[in-house]
Amino acid sequence: MLAASCGLLLTACGDVTGNNQTTTTDTSTSEKAKATTSQLSKDYYRNVINDGQYKVSQSRGVSLSLNSGYNIKAFETGLMNLSHSEFPTDTYYFQEGQQLDAETISKWIKRSSGDNPEPDLTVSDPEGLNPVDNGELEPDKRAPKYLSQILEQNYMVKDGDNFKLAGISIGLALNSVDYYQKVQYGAEFKTDIQRANLEAEGKKMANEIVARLRKMEGLGNIPITVGLFEQTPKDSLAGGVFFSEGVSKDGAATVANWKDINEKKVIFPRTDGETSNETTSFENFKSQVQSFFPNLNGVTAEATYSGDQLIKMKATVTTQFYGQSEIIALTQHVSDNASKYLPPNIPIEISINSIDGMEAFLNRDSGEKEFQSHVFD
Amino acid sequence: MLAASCGLLLTACGDVTGNNQTTTTDTSTSEKAKATTSQLSKDYYRNVINDGQYKVSQSRGVSLSLNSGYNIKAFETGLMNLSHSEFPTDTYYFQEGQQLDAETISKWIKRSSGDNPEPDLTVSDPEGLNPVDNGELEPDKRAPKYLSQILEQNYMVKDGDNFKLAGISIGLALNSVDYYQKVQYGAEFKTDIQRANLEAEGKKMANEIVARLRKMEGLGNIPITVGLFEQTPKDSLAGGVFFSEGVSKDGAATVANWKDINEKKVIFPRTDGETSNETTSFENFKSQVQSFFPNLNGVTAEATYSGDQLIKMKATVTTQFYGQSEIIALTQHVSDNASKYLPPNIPIEISINSIDGMEAFLNRDSGEKEFQSHVFD
């Protein structure tokens, strides 16, 4: 019992860096001892672990089907971030989604089979949330598939010596581009989808998902946060963003309080010719870094905006590996020029990569002046 | 001039994290303005840069021929580290080797052509430092090639508004295993070489190299540090180590003051069955991390010893990527168990990798208690 109280005390103190592992024994059931990980950042949740094992999702790996690794990571961490307001990281614990299994999700993201009494269940399902196939094949005439994937996250609280489910977050990954074939194994075609349509369709689907969850055992009254995520096309170097979030409380069967999230991600150098203070800063940084060696270094960045405000930058320097002393010199040069040219006060990550992988990494957190760096040897 | 004095002042103050770029203009010759990078760690040297460009080595990329990436990095950073004592990082600046070009080094690492008046210059050279081919083909009868590669580093000091060469370090990469073919394009055979032989042959070669350098213009009186490096075999997960260092001062044509460096690198888990406090600690850490997911995580480490003392550990956790929230949980779990089980007080690096590259990174510097971590998203 002492360990458990210490755990709660540390939580209340907001200690996020300490190694505050707690171990409690569940006396009410036959479950094994439960513990939690520490919390390495106030953006992260402590994780519930059972007997040294992590409880993976009932739909483990479904987000691997998204258009790119950038989308997968943006979808998962984005849903975690927008869960912070309903389920603060200092009192809630994270567990992977345990309510929706892979089979259920696989059905829900199919097309609806409508009133077809003998549907082809490989492409449609009575429970499918995407529109009924209208038989059209042209990009602007067919009914596109809006919903690409569903992600469930569970948020737990302490309950005596145990943990109980206290919140669910549901992310809907929606297609800005729906890829399809006109014939099986045929060429790939695309239907572009407007944000306004994604939003309208996404909100309808979110209500339906919440209504279905409400009927499941034990979920009648659990707060459910829902986020709508627009994934970027397959060839984009940027990940997608959440553009709308809502919540269902007090057992409501629909989502209320929808709020717009006005975020966007832009790749530098911009290819659309648009210029701003940030693009000029980036171009200065890029030209200093690019020409450091006789061979050119590649320099790109993903800039995240909230409204018109730049809030985060992730830069990637790609170089050819000729030796470790060159990597050290380049890292020091990148640090100097990032401090000199890149925008102040926002968090910035810079990775230096060769064909062998990451060679060095620089990081400046929000509010810091100096970059922290690490050269891998 | 002000900028230059500030630079020197900062150096004297031992400020290693600041962005102390200095720019001086060389008025005595027509060379372009010179600057230096900042110094991100007291282990690193500031680099001389000319007009935003890094001066690459005259033998750029020669160390890429070593047996593995582990050896390349250990060879280069090792030579830099053993240069610290003669050429301290607070007063000396680093420049890549400018004295020995790739062609010269290529000749020197060949076999000696001995007194053959018409040698095959693709395999031997009058200037070759490896033994004359004795015609034997069996592993224990042939004369193996001891010397695999030569690395030159230059150490500069401020000279008014300019930088001048003030020290040279030469690293000799020596073969613990010499790989060879009996016939061209044939199977690969190996000759194992004892450390004692490498040391004796390496010291002779070092003297010859120093004697040759002394005859080159401007190098008659420059201090030359020499390090003997034993590279590990191609299939080793550990990099090699420097095992002997010496110095040639006051224009001497030989190396004096040879000192043994009693370092070794060991891969955990050990395959030789040897056990120690460290192997037990590592096994505990490994078993906690390995079984965190239903699929096994791979856990290995490179432990560096000085004598019998563990001085550094680099661990690698290999996992399968199912999603970002699993990576965050694993990182927190690794941090907890590294703090709990791995040896205290030594620097430890842990990278968490999937097939897509590095997913997260944890680092604890010497003397720190907590791990710093970064999850890449």
Automatic annotation (TrEMBL), chains A, B:
It comes from the Bacteria. Keywords: Lipoprotein. Gene3D superfamilies: sex pheromone staph- cam373 precursor domain. Residues 110-140 are annotated as: Disordered. This is Lipoprotein. It comes from Carnobacterium divergens DSM 20623. The lineage of its organism: Bacteria, Bacillati, Bacillota, Bacilli, Lactobacillales.
